[in-house]
Amino acid sequence: MKRESIRWQLAVSYAGIALLATLALGLVLLTTLNRYYNHKEMEFMLRYGQSIQGALSVIALDRIPPDQLSAQVNSFSIFSQSRIQIVSPDGRTLADSGLADVRNNQVMLFSAPAVATRADGSDMIYATRDAVTFTYTVDPENESMQEAVQVEMLPAEASPGEWFVTGSTNSGVVTTQFVSAFEIVEPFNQEMDSASRSNQRVELPLYDMNEGEVGELVLSDGPAYSRQIVNSVAQAWLAAGVLAVLLSGLVGYVVSLRISRPVGALALTAHEMAQGNLKARAQAAPTLELNQLSSAFNHMADHIQETIFVLRRFVADAAHELKTPLTVIRTNLELLQPETDLQRREKYVKRAVEQVIYLDELVENLLDLSRLESDTLTEKRELVNLPDLIRKVSEVYAGRAEQKNIGFTIEMPEAELTLPGYGAKLELATANLLDNAIKFTPSGGSVRVALFVEDQQLKLVVEDTGIAIPEQDLPQIFNRFHRGSNSTAIQGSGLGLAIVDAVIELHNGRITVENRIEGGTRFTIYLPR
After folding, report:
1. C-beta of residue 482 within 8 angstroms of C-beta of residue 476
2. What is the dihedral angle through the alpha carbons of 299, 305, 307, 312, rounded to the nearest 10 degrees?
3. How far apart, in Å, are the Cα atoms of 127 and each of 79, 181, 187, 367, 452?
4. 142: three-class secondary structure by DSSP
5. Mind listing the pLDDT tens digit for each residue in 416-462?
6. How far apart are CA 247 and CA 253, in angstroms?
7. What is the pTM of this model?
8. 3-state SS, residue 250
9. Which CATH number fits domain 377-528: 3.40.190.10, 3.40.50.1010, 3.30.565.10, 3.30.1330.80?
10. Quick one: 35 exposed, middle or buried, by C-beta within 10 A (0-12, 13-18, 19+)?
11. Do the strands 93-96 and 83-87 form a parallel or antiparallel pair, or are they unpaired?
């Protein structure tokens, strides 16, 4: 398939449009998701930070050994899966968990059995409301609770949100009851790649029991859930985009076939016509536009066929019309050559000269008709005063009418009536009509020329009392070389009325012909102003 073909270009165009749409949709989708989950990450860290802030508010940070503070911060880091730092008011880092290790299952809780802070959920352990076993370190102020205690933490059935812890140390000390010192906050996704960290950062102030600021809590490097989700969506979007582009290219190819097949058939029909099959026609196409193209092509083919037919007939008729006078000329010249009688010689010469004049008129008419129909006129349009033009032409034919004892009447308005047109061509058309009227009107008859204004048009009437036109000849009277069946005895080329019709058509007008009831013929010309 060539790249210049419509099949290739349409398929590529469809695929290109699908690619652009996929890219635009993906860009909007990924940007929206990224913003949404970045907001969720910030909300997640802020809620954890507030929970940790509440838990640390009951602790005297300045009295806690650094190792136990670090152990507590590490526990919070495991729960929040974030890096947690505690910074003193003077900017010193009191504890830094570093990046949370999600594989560590040792959880250090810093609380005291005497503390009874109410919690409305559970703690931050990734677990359901089951019993959870973890390592517990007691308050350093209670000397008897310095040892690590293996405890079991159970939710209280009677009081939702309250927790009971039981356990014992190596020395037999037992802690019987307390509730967790901070609220549970469930993360929105519990699966996280340890190498994927968020760039969100939360800074919260820390207060002691007397509401004095004792430091700052900083959460950072939290779970980058948005990255995982956006990456998953991006992979799905990429796969869907590739599929959409391929399907669009396939659809474009199928559509191109529906377009290219009728066009190819049309090209084949045109090739058949070029080879001489003028009867070849395009078939109806499946779409409206291509069907219009096929119809226009067939209309053009009909016009070409008709033109060629007319041309062939014109050549045949012209050859016939030229052959007759040439035969007469040849015959008279052959008779003239051996003839010694002077009178006979003059008669032969006269006949030959008449045919030469007729040939000259025929050739001139053929040239005029050819120029009119080929749109190769060199004359420019100008405003033509039609009454003056008709009077000028009528002066010539009025004399001829008088010689034949034919009445000649002119009816012209006094006002100046002009129209844009070709003066010489209008003179030619008027002359041909007057010539025919006088030629086919016997002595004692009459010819009338009249000009009127009717419905914003100029109406020219040329009528006579001549031999009229047989009814069967009226439809073809404006065809080339067509002559009425009752006019064969009168010399003529049969081109005069064809020239008149071409001139009137050149001026966007129309001409009609009819036989008068009282005898003779009436030609009526309508010209737009």
Report:
1. yes
2. -170
3. 11, 17, 11, 107, 109
4. coil
5. 888 999 888 899 899 989 988 998 899 999 999 999 998 889 999 99
6. 10
7. 0.44
8. helix
9. 3.30.565.10
10. exposed
11. antiparallel
3-state secondary structure of 500: helix
Tokens of 5: 């073909």
Which helix (H) or strand (E) element contains residue 342? helix 342-374
On whether the 1-97+197-257 domain is CATH 3.30.450, my answer is yes
- Count Cα atoms within 13 angstroms, Cβ side, for 42: 10
Q: How far is CA 441 from the centre of its chain?
A: 66
Distance between CA atoms of 25 and 35, rounded to whole angstroms? 15
One fold for 281-376 and 377-528? no
Q: What's the rounded Cα separation, in Å, for the pair 145 and 289?
A: 93
Q: What is the C-alpha separation between 170 and 168, in angstroms, rounded?
A: 7
Say if CB 506 and CB 369 are below 8 A apart: no
Q: Compute the distance between CA of residue 391 and CA of residue 385 in angstroms, rounded to an integer.
A: 10
Structural contact between residues 195 and 57, judged by C-beta atoms closer than 8 angstroms: no
509: buried, middle or exposed (CB in 10 Å: 19+, 13-18, 0-12)?
buried
Instruction: For residue range 484-529, list pLDDT tens digits in order.
Output: 776 666 766 678 888 899 899 988 999 999 999 888 999 999 999 8
Q: Residue-wise over 332-368: b if at least 16 C-beta within 10 A, else e? A: beeebeeeeeeeeeeebeebbeebeebbeebeebbeb
Phi-psi region of 528 (alpha: psi -120 to 50; beta: other; left: phi over 0): beta
Domain boundaries, given as residue ranges, for the chain: 1-97+197-257, 281-376, 377-528
Q: In CATH, which of 1.10.287.130, 3.10.450.50, 6.20.20.10, 1.10.10.10 is domain 281-376?
A: 1.10.287.130
Q: Is 494 left (phi over 0), alpha (psi -120 to 50) or beta?
A: left
